[in-house]
Design a protein that fits this description.
This protein has three helices and 14 strands. By secondary structure, the chain is mainly β.
Length: 214
Amino acid sequence: MKKSKLTIEMAALALASSFSWSLATAADDIGGGPLADFGANELTVPCVEVNNLSGSNANNKFYDVVLDRRGNSMNFELTYAAPEDPDYCQRLVDYANYEDDDYEPNPGENGFGILVRCELEADRSKVSVNAKDLPPGTYYATVTSGLNEELSLPLLTADDEVEFDFDSDEDEVDDGATEIDDDFIQDDLEVTAEIVNDANDQVVYSATGVCLVD
């Protein structure tokens, strides 16, 4: 995926801006995806992860940010930053990594050929596992949270992908999801999934997803 010159310039200028994280004094009302609004002269970017910022406690955290355009130039200055829910942002990052063929993470990361999503509600656990770039064949998935483990039925690849759903909701089970208990997702709010080749029981992908809590 080729990025436009404008997008590259904006990204570089945003990263070069002064990160005055103390500007986050108002309630965070930023939602949706990145937006360049040239009517308002604002560049809004949700879920920006901060890394390698010398002497800052903002490193490895996610922020929603707003940058104001300087006059009619392509220069933008950071004017607002608010901490964002890290689990929510990480889920967006994992999904983007999985869908974007330009991304080349280390094998074993969520988003590298496998996407693990999970959510815990008051009386429900649900897990979704997707895998792509697979040779044709039959695969099954295992999901583990704490001491809980469940195994799916084998599925044939569709093109080069398979998708497995695990759920404690009876309607979802009736629709084909593998049944798990309401409290399947444990206190660490993580689920580790493995995609296994049914022909030889070889693990093809393995990754851990951080679960959202409703």
